[in-house]
Amino acid sequence: METVIAIEKVSFQYPNQTSFALQNISLHVEKGEWLAIVGHNGSGKSTLAKMLNGLHYPQTGNVTIGGLILSEENVWLIREKLGMVFQNPDNQFVGTTVQDDVAFGLENAGVEQAEMKERVLSALEKVGMAAFLNQEPHHLSGGQKQRVAIASVIALRPDIILLDEATSMLDPSGREEVMETIRELKEKEGLTVISITHDLEEAAKADRVIVLNEGNLYTEGTPREIFQMDKDLLKLGLGVPFSVQLSQLLADEGLLLTQRHFNEEELVREIWTLNFAK
Amino acid sequence: MDIKLREVEYRYAAGTPFERLAITEVSFDIPSGGYTAIIGHTGSGKSTVLQHLNVLLKPLKGEIQIGSRTIAAGRKEKNLKEIRRRVGIVFQFPEHQLFEETVEKDICFGPVNFGVSEGEAKERAREALALVGLPEHVLERSPFDLSGGQMRRVAVAGVLAMQPEVLVLDEPTAGLDPRGRHDMMEMFASLQKEKGMTCVLVTHSMEDAARYADRIVMMHKGRVYKTGTPCEIFSDGPDLTAIGLDVPETVRFQRLFEEKLGRPLGHLCLTPEELAREISRLRGES
Prior knowledge:
The complex is a heterodimer. By secondary structure, chain A is α/β, with parallel strands linked by helices. Chain A contains 11 helices and 10 strands.
């Protein structure tokens, strides 16, 4: 496996704050993996996101992205490797049409006109928005806006895409649309995905989950491992997916279950076989 | 204070080439002291309805009764201040509307505007802050130094300080983490139960509608599609899917379980706690 991001003993403190926003964090991200970073409001998630894009620099420790150490000299090269999609779909549009908007980043990067056209179209095709080329962005639904924002990022051909609560302002169908788009991009384009989220259904789709708490790396594991620690997660201000929550409630009621189930069909089956089928 | 909508219609940019019908033939009641949820897909007209509840928008057809006042289409309405004090709206992302230097000034802004004395407004700010679960020392801080969840609470406190009888909530927990979401929803529920406040919740979360509301209004394409109790609304899954909504997770799971069981449970469970109890009771019987 190839490491695309290495964070080594990173600490960061905002001015005039007594506590650390990030404290001695170390973690690696492998190429092609989907990593979810979860934590309550104020746990350090967003600070970490900003650091990965050079909006903050570590005060101690090092961040290496695609072989480059994060520094003021390297920051522009690093931003070519890692693209970000932010929370509010309305705050990230600059163009008057969907295609202008996707072209904006390419223009800044000095891409030739002919290649630009091709990349805009192919990026919009990949997110399923090619039919909207000349639409005004503000007429799109939230999910469509975020897909255009994703197209703007992938048109620049980054290795890594970072979603900073990118679905938290969307309705359930918009959320579903965006997650499906990301899943396809990861599979077909081999993109590395980092999603910062407190939506647990979203975290459940990742290959690996990291839990931050008060600036510290609290724990990490596969979604299945993480959601076994249901009561701990609740203590940290996080929720758990529905079937995990229901497993816990059923266990409290005295039903026999071998584990906190992650998947509804699995849970139904086990309720049945261990408690009803006689 | 009851609110009744009768055949309400509204068009944006009426009389221009950009005219767009937003809602039509909308009739439903919001009973005093109850908890009504309005659900519907994005663009179904929920937010337009909401803005009629304190006459930020006036119907182009039909009428709205708000307590003893009737707001009818085609009439000049004066003195809407009283309605706006009695019906408080918490808009989406209300923290974007914070603007004062201190939390105290921000919360006092509304009451002072409605003619409350400064001393009384400060007293109310203290009370409202306690209701939303923030410590008193926050009063002296700039609202912009607070975390997102705290800012949201301050904005809600600003509405509560006007002591409205009806509290209208537009996606009040969007963007909050799970604990913040839970605490805020519980706070509204206790305002309704303990202070007799009327709550109107506009939401995408079927789980919240199922857990908290006693009446649900389903909107679709600018019209009222259906109204009923959460049990009535959520027992018809196909009907919800037809208009782009879904049943709450609990109901979905109950259906899966019933399939395995080979027969329906006695009633529809609206929360995971209720469903766990019901399954456990069944096991005891079997």
